[in-house]
Every structure is written in structure tokens, then in C-alpha cells.
Write a structure and sequence with these properties.
The complex is a heterotrimer of chains A (653), B (374) and C (287).
Chain A (H helix, E strand, L loop, with lengths): L4 H4 L16 E3 L2 E3 L1 H32 L1 H15 L1 H32 L1 H20 L1 H9 L3 H21 L2 H9 L10 H16 L6 H13 L2 H12 L1 H43 L4 H16 L6 H13 L1 H18 L7 H30 L8 H10 L3 E2 L7 E2 L2 H32 L2 H14 L4 H21 L17 H25 L3 H9 L4 H12 L1 H17 L2 H6 L23 H8 L8 H32 L1
Antiparallel strand pairs in A: 1-2, 3-4
Helix pairs in contact in A: 2-27, 3-12, 3-17, 4-11, 4-12, 4-16, 5-9, 5-10, 7-9, 11-15, 12-13, 12-14, 15-16, 18-21, 18-24, 19-21, 20-21, 21-24, 22-23, 24-27, 26-27
Chain B lengths: L12 H40 L9 H5 L2 E8 L5 E5 H10 L6 E11 L2 H32 L4 H13 L4 H13 L3 E4 L9 E4 L2 E5 L6 H25 L3 H9 L4 H29 L3 H6 L4 E2 L3 H8 L1 H5 L6 H9 L8 H32 L3
Antiparallel strand pairs in B: 1-2, 1-3, 4-6, 5-6
Helix pairs in contact in B: 1-14, 4-7, 4-9, 4-13, 5-7, 6-7, 7-9, 8-9, 9-14, 13-14
Chain C lengths: L1 H15 L13 E6 L1 H4 L2 H12 L4 E6 L2 H10 L4 E4 L5 H8 L5 E16 L6 E2 L1 H9 L16 E5 L4 H10 L10 E3 L2 H10 L3 E6 L8 E3 L1 E2 L15 E9 L4 H12 L1 H10 L4 H12 L1
Parallel strand pairs in C: 1-2, 1-3, 5-10, 6-7, 6-8
Antiparallel strand pairs in C: 3-11, 4-8, 4-9, 4-11
Helix pairs in contact in C: 3-10, 9-10
Classes of the chains: A mainly alpha (653), B mainly alpha (374), C alpha/beta (287).
């Protein structure tokens, strides 16, 4: 508006007094005419707004970037103390434990298949024990308080009879139900097992609610009778012992070093803090009791520095790790030997499947071991941690573990993949619906129909996210889980879903939030296509549908892509819905499950901030980590928005 | 129209079917979205409406809108009849029937009374947020569109403001929590330990110690959050006023300010109004920012009482209850059928409130579009 | 023009509000209580309700979002009383000592962390070792603890909860939670999920341990009952914290809430165990 300056600077013209502002003050070279003041006021506000928004960026950067050096120090301590190395060994151990657990499951499945009767004794006993706990608590106490022997005998008989009656009164159906959860093949509760279980329950009641030894003996007996299978499982179990021992020794040793390093850092922090506190307390003239208390604490803190010889300690770690290769190699050999001695084909389908899975885990474990062996031999404690390492640990770390008694781990990957997964699945639903609706409203709908439908869809945008989240938790979650269990829908991959709160639920709700955004913007884009395009196409004999799909849609593509991206931005940034319905499991979703991935719970970047902000103290590493997550969100939305701007602008040209 | 009656189209049966199918599926998509919306709205309304009304005259549950959340007392008598009563009523009843048998008494939080406190809290947050955001936002928009040229820097500023409009609310929440709750300046007569730094002015100190979890912090956070939206929308409606209006005004010799006041603002006002209501809709529905900066779960007083008793500063630095956060609290209550009416009622009331704003904004916009075409 | 000037005036007045004469907190009759969800969702609002009835001049505001909140707010001076379902950590204590202040602890009540499973789940008891295995992620199938062949869904509180940390200390020998845990906000969401997931397991405060479609399991053979508190391995104290010895209204409220009979009545109605009852039961055991 260069025109603007002309009349404002020529107030001398007296021929048009009505339009001219009063001649204002001139102070310190500033023109205090109305115009000047107004302009100053607006300009001031504009710069205030811009400054405030700029300040956000600076503040986020400042709070977030402090994280990197802080985390670097922690990672450095983990390396010097050897915790990092221990984690590598622990990673192997996790693989072994998963393998062992799977073999154990196969064993249990087989055991249940072969010794259903004996197993059901134990399960029935557990049911009866619960019954005794619930109904005979007072009776048991009265019985215990009796000391007189004949009376006691009578009471004993009475109690036993009551228990037997109560147990026999449980409907057969209910007992069977409890049993078939574990023994799915069972059709009938065996009387023998039931009687035995009742006897055990009576034993339990008479012995001051101590589980009788007989129960443990029964399971031991069953295991023994499993023969070959049992020895194989025991062999795998005992083969892992050296590795477990190595890990626990290393953990003990390195965690101790790490703890000392951390304590010393903390103590020096405490000392500075206490010194300040003492100074302040003295300034404030606090009562001498308090000052004395602080002085005492200060003295104690000064004395609590722990001498630590990191070099010597790390030497011990290197010594311990020397045997590592040998240990894992023997472990692998022993496991494969045990696997060979497993019966190849068993009657029970479940056992066979589980054993197969165990075989697969075994080969995976061998790969892990081979990789970790290399990693471990290449590991050096004195390699310093670079900023690059720290950044990699943050951005590519696969674990987000906070509030830990040992060491917090900040790895963005689980949250990032979670956010991304939820957002993309939600777009899968939202995009076809929203674009279809935009095409319909823009091209095919009657004018009056469009005038009703359009505001109707835009209206949806206003539904508050907390309300949608509540709807999700209370209504949709239950529906979705029930539907997914119906046999009619079992052909859909990923169904049935076991978790109520999952990606799919969050995605559906978010799709509902994103659809109006995409719809509005896409409809605008369709609107902007010149009429001539449509007319030309129709004149060529194309139908309305052909025109819409082949002419109008391609012509408005940039706008539609921008609409989709902005919808994506909206979904990634949504907090309350994902906090309430996504399940908050900070683990990288298992992509190996294919489409079934949508049934898993995930954690997202937005909900981690909402969930953990209450815990952090100002300026701590955790606080900075949350700001880093905020910074990542900020960057994502900036990239999306500016790309959209560019797309739209280039189209306009 | 029947296809067989039309001799020109008889060969194109397949095309026609495809046409119908295509358009039909687009139509289905459209109405599916609307159907979902209706389903959700209907479900919430169906559950929430009973809380709004009661069986005796005046049929409207005025208590629900005028009183604070209360405890619901539940017990049964010797015969096993179940009773439930709001806490205050219970006290009166107990005084009248001191001998009544009360067995297995327990109390359900926030399950009686109403939502007045949260409602007023939300209203105050929105009010102050809009005062701050509008006064800054509109002036900034006027400055950007009327006084500034189209230089590179200006277009960059515009672009970044537009970008900020899409930043997730949780990021603004984090910012507001860090700045307004922990580091904003306040004039106090006693510097708190948490102050970042302070210097004295006369008998008082200017201390950067933050405002704590408070109405002021919440309003400012929301204002910052909605500022980019308002600036962008207002600037757009100012730009939509044809250049000719301004040129005509200047030609008559009026100054810049006169032009803006008489020739631009009146025509942009409807657009600005729409932006305002849009802003309100966005702000009122937001939960995450106020959760971090402004709310308390339970509060004795209505917010206004602080103004009467303790003065202006105390009024602004008190924490308030807010409807969205109250709903979140209610969602975490134990699953008791007696707690449900409050939960459903509050949800529906909140939905109505926000949808009401949205309705007004859509109505306004449509009218603006119809009226102002040049 | 006038309108705009007026608006500007309001804005300026608003901005300058900061310069209005101000008062320091706690001089008035308002008590700000912040922290644990375990205490703040049920118990403290009811205590407040009863207390305010007798002392109408006192105002009490409550915000319950997790124990860590208590200490950050006490530190920031935005709370008079902090509610916590765990003991204060050394790092948190340092912050107070750095300012030359002491943190005073008041036992609010006793609680038992109940381990809950779905009613369909036949597992009725778990040892601490098994619980540790489940929550650290080494046990992933119910069959391994005597249940059906199904993957375990683990529900825990979120990290800012005191229960999260108490549980890690009491039941998991201070080990980290496994990455399979779903972290939920508050006790009730855990109850809801476990009640609706046949393979779910979670832990909640004793006040939430009764309800439909789920049941508590015995831990080390001891069930979570008030009479067994002395033997139950997952019993813990709940605390109020103040900066220095409390004074004025906060002191009176704390005195009333921790010692009076009417307060212990409310405490046991809610489903916590009043300190007196717990101590009595402990005393019996030592005898």
C-alpha cells in the first residue's frame, strides 16, 4: 500500500479538512498524529505476535537441545561403567529366554494333553482353595483357636464335611468351564480328580491356609513322567545357566560402577545446591535448628563422595567377557542337541506348532548370538560418545523407558512409528471417504443437497477430541472387539482383535476427525478447476463421472494432495484421542504381523507428552526429552505445512 | 428414466451402470460420514439428555447447570432398599432422620450436583483467551495486510504464521506450561524461591516466577495457540475487500486510518467475526493445553468468589475447573451406574456448547458469502 | 474509534494487571492440594467435602494427576499439600534442601496394591517371582503360570504415578517394566481393560479392587484383605507432604485428616486402611 503514505504525509492541504486527521504532536522525531499512533499500535501488536511466535520456536529449541549434551553424559557413564556392554549380553539373554519360554509352553501343552486328569486335580484344587478362602475364613479361625483335642476332632470333622459339601455344590458346568480354559479337550470333570482335590482343599483349611505339599508333588510327578521331553526341557534350562550367571555378574558389577558415577554426579549437584540453600537460609534468618540441619546434610554429602577406579573396574568387565564366546557357543550346541532329542511328531497339534515356533526362535537366537559376538568383541569402553551417537540413540533408539529405578532410556522410535502408523491407517479410511464426498458434493449433488451436506460435514470438525475419545473408550472399543470376534468377519486379516485399545480404534476415530478437514480443502481444490475444463470434456461426449475422474480430479491434484497432507498433520498432532484409545504401549509395532498390526496397541509422541509432563521436574533430562519430542512434532508439522504451501502456490502460478 | 425407452442410450448400458455405480459410491461415502456423525451425536444425546430434564416441574434440571459437582451418597437400609442422595441433601435428611438405618454407605465423587464450576471455568478461559488473541490478532492482521508491503521478509513472516496454525496443540501446551506457569513475570512483594530472576521496583519486585497453574496461564496459552489461526483468517478477509474501495477512499483524501476504519473494516467485519467464532470453537474444544496449564480437578469456590474476596490478581492466578478436563476426570471414575448420568450429561453439554459455536460460525460464514459478493 | 480505544485500554489494563498489588500465597484461607491420582480421585475430595462443611471459611482446590506432580508443585510453590502414593525420591528431596527447606511427611492411610485378572481367568494365585516375570516381560504366556494358553496383556499405570513406582519396588525387585506394558491413566482405566480382556492383568489400589468381571489374585498365598494387611506383600503407605511443618489451615486440615475419627471413617469407606487400623494389625503380627 504505497498509496497510503501520500495522503498521510501531506496534512498541509487545507482544502479538504473533513478527511484530515488533527495535526498531532511531534515528539522525539516521532509523528504523534492519529495515523501514526494507530499505525504504531497495529505494528506493535503485529510484532508482538510475531515475537511471541518466534519465541515459541526459540524456547522449544532451547529446552529441547539441552537434552543432547545431558543425554550424552549419561550415555558416557553407561559406557565407561560397562552398562552398555551388559545390555548387549542381556539382549542375547532375552533371545534365549524367549526360546526357553516357547519350549516351556510346548512342554506345558504336551503335559496337559497327556496328563489331563492329574492336571485337573491341581486346577480343581485351586478352585476349591479359593472357595475355602471366601467362605470358610471365620470357620478356619474358630477351628484354629480350639485347643481341646476331642472338641477339635469334632470341629475338624465338621469343617471337612462343610468344605466337601460346599465343593460338591459347585455346579459341574462351572467347574468344567474353569478347566476347559486350560484343558480345551476336556469334556467331563473326573470324579477321581474331584475327590482328590477336595481332600487337598480340606488339608489346606486344616493347616492354617498352607498349600499342601501334595500339590507340588503331583506336578513334579507329572513332569517326571514326561520322559524325554522333560529331560530336553531341563537340558535347555540348565544350558542357559552360565549365560545367566555371566549376565547377572556383569549387571551387578557394572550397575554398581554406574551407580557410583551417578551418585558422585548427584552428590556434587547436591553439594552446590546445599551450599546455596545454606546461604539463602542464613540470609533469611531461619531458626538455627534448620541451619544446623542443612550444615549437617552438607557435611554428610561432602563425605559421601565414593572413590572409584573406573579403569580397574572395567578391567574386571573385560575379564568376565573373555569367556563369553565360549559360553554362548556351548549354549548353542547344547540347545541344538536338546532339540534333536525332542520327539519329532506328537499327537497334540498345539505342541507341534509350538515346537516349530521354538525351532524358528532357535535359529533367530543363533543369528542374534553371532551378531552380538561381533559387537561385544568390538566394544571398547574408552571410545568417547559423540553427539552423533547421542542423536542416533535418541532418534533410532527402540526403547522409551522412563521412571526407571536404574537408567532412563529415551528412544524415539516406538513413539514415532506409533504416531506414523496410527496416522497412516486413519488416512486409509479418511482419504477415500473425504475425497469421494468432495467429488459428490462438488460434481454430482443437487445444489440444495450440497448446501445441506457441506456444512453438515464441516460441523463434524467441531466435535471436541475428548468427547470423541470418551465415545471411543466407552462405546466403539467394545463394539470393535465384539465384531472382530464374530465368525462372519473372521476373513478380515488381523481379526479377531484381542486388545480393546488399539491402532484400529484410534485410527477410526482420527479418520473421523481428519475427514472434514480433507473434505473442505479438497472441495475447495475441485472448485478451483476452471469451468472450461468441464465444458470441454462434456462436449467431447464424456459422461459426468468420466469428466470428474479423468479431468477434474487430475486438474485439482495438487490441491487434493495438500488437503491429504494437512489432514495427516492434523492426525499426527492429535493428543486426547490417542491418549485415551491407542493403548499406550511403548514398543515398536511388530510389522511381521502384516495387516494384523492394526490390532496392536501403540504409544505416540503426543500422548507421551501428555502422560509424562506431570512427572518431570523443571530442567531435568526427562523434561528436555519431552521438549525434544515436542520439537520433532513441531518440525513435522512445519515440513508438512510448508510443503503444502509450496504445492498450492506452484499450482496457482 | 427407463433405459430401454431411450433409443440413443440403449447401447451404452454398461457405461450407464458404471456411471451410476461410481456416483452412487461417492454418494455413499458422503452419507456414510454424515451417518457416523449422526450416530455419535445421537448416542451422546440419547445418553445425555435424561440428565438435562427431570420428572417433576419445571422439568428442566436447573441444578445441573447452576451448581457445582457434588458427592453422591449411596447406602441401603435394613430391608435392602437402595438409596442415593446428593451430599447436601443427605445432611439435611440425616438431621431429620437421625435414627434411620444406614448400611454399607459409600460415596461417589462428582456424581451429583452439576457442572456450573467447569462451565464457568471454560467460559472464563475462552473469554480471556479471545480478548488477548483478538486484540493482538486483529491488529496484527490489519498491520500485515494494510500497512506492510509484499516484501520478501513479510511474505516469509506470513508463511511462518500460516505454518504455525498447523502446529499440534500439545506443542503450544508444552510451551505455555514452560513459560506461563514457570517463568512469566509478576510483580510481587515477596520474591519466591522458584523465581528465575528478580529485580526490585520500589517496594515490590518484578520476579520471573511464573503464574502457576492458573486462569491467566491457561488463557495466554490458548491465545498463543489460536493466534496464528486468527491472524491468517482475519488477514484473508481483509484482503478480500476489493482494492477499489481503498483507492476510492484515498482519492477522496482520507488518511490511511480513516480508510481502514470506514472503507475496509466494515466490509471485512463479517469475515473477522467468523474467524472469531472459529477461534472460539477451536479453543473451547481443546483439552491438552488447559490440562497442562490451567485446571484443577476439584475446587471449593466458584471462580468469581476469588474476585470478590481476594482481588484481581488472585482471580487471574487461581486455577479453574474446565469442562473438557472435568469430562476427562469423570471418565476415570469407577464404573458405577449412578455416576453415569453426570458423565453423560457433562459430555452432551460440552458437545452442545462447542457445536453451538460451530453452528454460529458456519451460519455467519454462509451469510457473509451470500451478502458480500463483489 | 472509541470502541477501539476502549478495547486497547482493556488490553493494556489486562497486560498491566501484573502490576496490580499482589499478595503472597498461603496467607489466605485457601489450601492447594496436588499430586497422586490414587489419593486425589476418591479420598481427598471426600475429606475436603467433610472438612469444608465444618470449616466453611476454608477453600480447598485439588488437582490429581500423579504423585510426581506433588513434588514439582510443592517445589514450584503452587501447592500447599502434596499427595503421594510413594516416598519422596532423593533427587526430589535435593531440590528442597537446595533451598534450605525441609519436606515433612505425614502418613495419610495404608493401601494394598491388588493384582487383578479377568474373571474368566482360572489363575487364582501368583508368586512375587511370577508377578515380576509377567511385568518385566519374561513371562508372556498364561500357561507358564498355570493358566490357559494365551498371550498375557499387561496393563500398568503411567510413569508419573506413585503406584507405578511402588509396585516396581514391592513386586518387581526394582526391575524395569517390560516393553509390553500398556500404560493407562488412572486406576479405573486399568479396571475397565482387565474386566473386558480375558487375558489381561493389572494392578490397582485396594479401593478399586472390587467390581464386576474381574477378580484379585492371591500374592504369595495371601489375598488382599484388610485383615491380612500385615502379611500382604504389596501393602504400602500413602503420604501427604508439606514444605516445612505445616501451619495455619493446612496444618489443621492435615491434623484432622490423619487423626480424627470422622476422617478415618471416610478413609475406610473409600477402601483404604486408616493408619490406626493398619498399625493395630501390624502389632498383632509382631506379637
Amino acid at each position: 500500500m504505497q498509496v497510503a503514505a501520500v495522503p498521510a504525509n501531506k496534512p498541509k492541504n487545507k482544502s479538504a479538512p473533513t478527511f484530515k486527521g488533527k495535526r498531532g504532536l511531534r515528539l522525539m522525531g516521532l509523528n504523534f498524529t492519529t495515523d501514526g499512533v494507530v499505525k504504531g499500535f497495529f505494528g506493535g501488536n503485529a510484532y508482538l505476535a510475531i515475537l511471541a511466535l518466534l519465541f515459541i520456536c526459540v524456547f522449544l529449541l532451547k529446552s529441547g537441545l539441552g537434552f543432547i549434551p545431558g543425554y550424552r553424559v549419561e550415555l558416557g557413564e553407561a559406557r565407561i561403567s560397562g552398562v552398555e556392554l551388559t545390555n548387549k549380553v542381556r539382549y542375547e539373554l532375552t533371545g534365549y529366554k524367549a526360546l526357553l519360554a516357547r519350549v516351556n509352553q510346548a512342554f506345558i501343552a504336551e503335559k496337559r494333553n497327556r496328563f489331563g486328569d492329574e492336571e485337573s486335580t491341581i486346577y480343581l484344587y485351586e478352585e476349591f482353595e479359593a472357595l475355602v478362602d471366601d467362605e470358610f475364613e471365620d470357620a478356619m479361625e474358630t477351628y484354629l483357636s480350639i485347643n481341646d483335642s476331642p472338641e477339635k476332632e469334632a470341629a475338624c470333622a465338621r469343617l471337612c464335611k462343610d468344605i466337601a459339601d460346599a465343593c460338591n455344590n459347585i455346579p459341574e458346568k462351572k467347574l468344567l468351564q474353569a478347566l476347559t480354559r486350560r484343558l480345551p479337550e476336556l469334556r467331563k470333570v473326573s470324579t477321581n480328580a474331584k475327590d482328590q482335590a477336595i481332600a487337598l482343599a480340606q488339608d489346606y483349611a486344616l493347616n492354617d491356609a498352607e498349600t499342601p505339599h501334595a500339590v507340588a508333588e503331583i506336578s513334579a510327578q507329572i513332569s517326571k513322567e514326561m520322559g524325554n521331553f522333560n529331560t530336553a526341557v531341563q537340558a535347555i534350562k540348565s544350558a542357559g545357566k552360565p549365560l545367566i550367571q555371566l549376565e547377572s555378574e556383569l549387571t551387578k558389577h557394572t550397575a554398581e560402577s554406574d551407580r557410583i558415577l551417578k551418585l558422585n554426579r548427584q552428590t556434587s549437584g547436591s553439594i552446590t545446591a546445599l551450599e546455596q540453600g545454606l546461604k539463602k537460609a542464613k540470609q533469611r534468618d531461619e531458626p538455627p535448628v534448620i541451619i544446623a540441619a542443612i550444615e549437617k546434610r552438607l557435611k554428610k554429602s561432602r563425605g559421601s563422595f565414593i572413590e572409584i577406579d573406573t579403569e580397574a573396574r572395567i578391567k574386571a568387565v573385560y575379564q568376565a567377557i573373555e569367556n563369553h564366546d565360549l559360553i554362548v557357543d556351548t549354549l548353542l550346541i547344547k540347545i541344538s542337541k536338546a532339540f534333536n532329542s525332542l520327539p519329532a511328531e506328537l499327537e497334540n497339534e498345539l505342541t507341534n506348532v509350538t515346537i516349530e515356533q521354538a525351532h524358528k526362535l532357535n535359529s533367530e537366537f543363533a543369528i542374534i548370538v553371532a551378531k552380538q559376538k561381533e559387537n561385544i568383541s568390538a566394544w571398547r569402553h574408552d571410545k568417547s560418545i559423540t553427539t552423533g551417537n547421542t542423536l542416533a540413540a535418541f532418534f533410532f533408539g527402540s526403547e522409551w523407558q522412563t521412571g526407571s529405578p536404574w537408567q532412563d532410556i529415551y528412544g524415539l522410535m516406538p513413539l514415532f512409528t506409533g504416531s506414523l502408523l496410527v496416522a497412516s491407517v486413519s488416512l486409509l479410511f479418511a482419504v477415500p471417504l473425504a475425497i469421494g464426498a468432495a467429488l459428490y458434493v462438488n460434481q454430482f449433488a443437487h445444489k440444495r443437497e450440497a448446501a445441506l451436506v457441506k456444512p453438515g460435514i464441516e460441523f463434524i470438525q467441531a466435535i471436541p477430541s475428548v468427547v470423541l475419545g470418551l465415545f471411543g473408550v466407552l462405546v466403539l472399543a467394545g463394539f470393535l472387539k465384539d465384531w472382530s470376534h464374530s465368525p462372519l468377519l473372521s476373513w478380515i486379516p488381523g481379526f479377531p482383535i484381542t486388545e480393546r485399545l488399539n491402532v484400529l480404534l484410534a485410527a477410526l476415530l482420527l479418520a473421523f476427525m481428519a475427514a472434514p478437514t480433507i473434505f473442505t480443502l479438497a472441495e475447495d481444490a475441485l472448485n478451483n478447476v476452471p469451468k472450461a475444463f468441464t465444458e470441454a470434456s462434456l462436449a467431447m461426449g464424456a459422461t459426468k463421472l468420466q469428466t470428474a475422474i479423468n479431468v477434474i480430479l487430475p486438474a485439482s491434484m495438487p490441491g487434493i494432495i495438500a488437503a491429504i497432507m494437512l489432514g495427516f498433520g492434523r492426525v499426527v498432532g492429535e493428543t486426547m484421542v490417542v491418549l485415551m484409545v491407542a493403548g499406550n504401549k511403548a514398543k515398536i509395532p511388530e510389522f511381521s504381523e502384516g495387516i494384523g498390526i492394526v490390532g496392536q496397541p501403540v504409544h505416540t509422541m503426543t500422548s507421551i507428552i501428555a502422560q509424562e509432563y506431570g512427572e518431570v521436574t523443571e530442567g531435568s533430562l526427562h523434561w528436555q526429552a519431552l521438549f525434544m519430542v515436542g520439537l520433532v512434532l513441531f518440525t513435522i508439522s512445519l515440513v508438512i505445512n510448508s510443503t503444502c504451501q509450496r504445492v498450492l502456490n506452484s499450482k496457482n502460478r | 428414466m427407463n433405459a430401454s425407452e431411450n433409443p440413443f442410450e440403449s447401447k451404452r448400458n454398461w457405461t450407464k451402470l458404471r456411471e451410476k455405480l461410481g456416483v452412487g459410491s461417492f454418494g455413499i461415502a458422503t452419507y456414510f460420514i454424515l451417518f457416523c456423525a449422526a450416530l455419535i451425536f445421537g448416542q451422546i444425546a440419547y445418553k445425555g439428555l435424561p440428565t438435562f430434564f427431570k420428572s417433576e416441574a419445571p422439568y428442566v434440571n436447573t441444578e445441573f447447570f447452576t451448581s457445582n459437582p457434588e458427592i453422591l451418597r449411596v447406602w441401603h437400609d435394613a430391608e435392602g432398599n437402595k438409596f442415593s442422595m446428593p451430599d447436601k441433601k443427605f445432611d439435611v435428611w440425616r438431621r431429620d432422620n437421625p435414627d434411620a438405618v444406614i448400611l454399607d454407605p459409600h460415596a461417589l465423587n462428582y456424581s451429583a450436583g452439576g457442572i456450573a464450576g467447569p462451565l464457568i471455568g471454560t467460559a472464563l478461559l475462552v473469554l480471556f483467551c479471545m480478548i488477548i488473541a483478538l486484540s493482538i490478532g486483529i491488529s496484527a492482521a490489519i498491520y500485515l495486510s494494510e500497512y506492510c508491503g509484499k516484501g520478501r521478509i513479510m511474505s516469509m513472516i506470513r508463511l511462518s504464521i500460516l505454518n504455525l496454525a498447523g502446529v499440534p496443540s500439545i506443542v503450544f501446551a508444552l510451551f505455555g506450561w514452560g513459560i506461563f506457569c514457570h517463568a512469566a513475570p509478576a510483580i510481587v512483594d515477596h520474591v519466591d524461591e522458584r523465581s528465575l530472576f528478580a529485580f526490585s521496583i520500589g517496594s515490590n519486585y518484578l520476579s520471573f516466577q511464573g503464574w502457576g497453574t492458573s486462569l491467566l496461564a491457561g488463557s495466554c496459552t490458548l491465545a498463543i495457540m489460536v493466534l496464528p489461526v486468527i491472524i491468517t483468517a482475519c488477514e484473508e478477509s481483509l484482503r478480500a475487500v476489493p482494492k477499489g474501495f481503498r483507492e476510492a477512499s484515498f482519492a477522496l483524501g482520507s488518511s490511511q486510518w480513516q480508510t481502514i476504519r470506514k472503507a475496509v473494516l466494515p466490509y471485512a467485519l463479517p469475515g473477522i467475526l467468523t474467524a472469531t467464532v472459529l477461534g472460539i470453537t477451536r479453543v473451547a474444544g481443546e483439552t491438552a493445553p488447559i490440562m497442562l496449564t490451567a485446571t484443577s480437578t476439584d475446587k471449593t469456590d466458584m471462580p468469581m468468589q476469588a474476585l470478590q474476596n481476594e482481588g484481581v490478581w488472585a482471580f487471574f492466578t487461581q486455577s479453574v475447573q474446565a469442562l473438557p478436563f472435568h469430562i476427562y476426570t469423570l471418565a476415570k471414575l469407577p464404573d458405577d451406574p449412578l455416576s453415569k448420568p453426570m458423565q453423560n450429561g457433562a459430555t452432551f453439554a460440552f458437545l452442545l456448547l462447542v457445536m453451538g459455536f460451530a453452528f454460529v460460525s458456519i451460519l455467519l460464514r454462509n451469510r457473509v458469502r451470500k451478502k458480500l459478493k463483489w | 474509534m472509541k470502541r477501539i480505544t476502549a478495547t486497547t485500554a482493556i488490553v493494556i489494563a489486562f497486560a498491566l494487571n501484573i502490576s496490580a498489588t499482589t499478595t503472597t500465597r498461603a496467607a489466605d484461607s485457601k489450601i492447594d492440594i496436588k499430586g497422586s491420582d490414587t489419593l486425589g480421585a476418591k479420598l481427598v475430595p471426600q475429606l475436603k467435602n467433610a472438612y469444608v462443611k465444618d470449616n466453611p471459611s476454608v477453600k480447598i482446590d485439588i488437582l490429581a494427576q500423579g504423585s510426581s506432580h506433588a513434588f514439582s508443585n510443592l517445589d514450584a510453590g503452587t501447592a500447599d499439600i502434596g499427595m503421594s502414593s510413594r516416598k519422596v525420591k532423593q533427587q526430589e528431596l535435593d531440590k528442597f534442601e537446595a533451598k534450605g527447606k525441609a519436606l515433612v511427611e505425614h502418613v495419610a492411610a495404608w493401601d494394598m496394591i491388588a493384582v487383578i485378572v479377568n474373571e474368566m481367568n482360572p489363575v487364582r494365585k501368583l508368586s512375587l517371582k511370577q508377578i515380576e516375570g509377567i511385568f518385566t516381560g519374561t513371562i508372556t504366556n498364561w500357561a507358564e503360570v498355570g493358566g490357559p494358553d494365551a498371550t498375557i496383556s499387561v496393563y500398568t499405570r503411567n510413569t508419573s504415578s506413585g503406584t507405578y513406582k511402588s509396585f516396581s519396588k514391592l513386586a518387581m525387585s526394582k526391575n524395569d517394566y517390560g516393553i509390553n506394558c500398556q500404560k493407562l491413566e488412572g486406576n479405573q482405566p486399568i479396571v475397565t481393560e482387565v474386566a473386558k480382556n480375558a487375558n489381561g492383568i493389572g494392578y490397582v489400589g485396594y479401593a478399586y479392587a472390587e467390581g464386576n468381571h474381574f477378580k484379585t489374585v492371591k500374592v504369595e498365598g495371601v489375598s488382599a484383605k484388610v485383615s491380612k494387611i500385615a502379611k500382604y506383600p504389596l501393602a504400602r503407605k500413602l503420604y501427604y507432604y508439606t514444605v516445612g511443618e505445616p501451619s495455619g489451615h493446612a496444618a489443621q486440615f492435615l491434623e484432622w485428616a490423619t487423626t480424627s475419627d470422622s476422617a478415618s471413617q471416610i478413609v475406610s469407606e473409600i477402601g483404604f486402611i486408616p493408619t490406626t487400623v493398619a498399625q493395630e494389625s501390624m502389632g498383632k503380627l509382631t506379637k
